[in-house]
Amino acid sequence: MSLFDALLLDPNGFDVWLAVRADGLSNAGTIDDPYNCSTQAQFDAVMQGLGTLPNTSIRIHFGAGIPS
Q1: Is residue 8 a contact partner of residue 55, using CB atoms and an 8 Å limit?
Q2: How far is the C-alpha of 45 from the C-alpha of 48, rounded, in Å?
Q3: Is 37 part of any domain?
Q4: Residue 39 lies in a domain
């Protein structure tokens, strides 16, 4: 089992950050590098991807921002 897989199976779960980003990059989903959710399609893609993680507790944090 890889370290990444072990972290995903951690019973304490993990945190994911989402934000409206002006740079257009998708990034890593961390507090310093949130996923780009500037459009409904991007938000849906991130949510669908998170939904494929079995037996995982995920805390989702939404960053401030208003799309222009």
Answers
A1: no
A2: 5
A3: yes
A4: yes
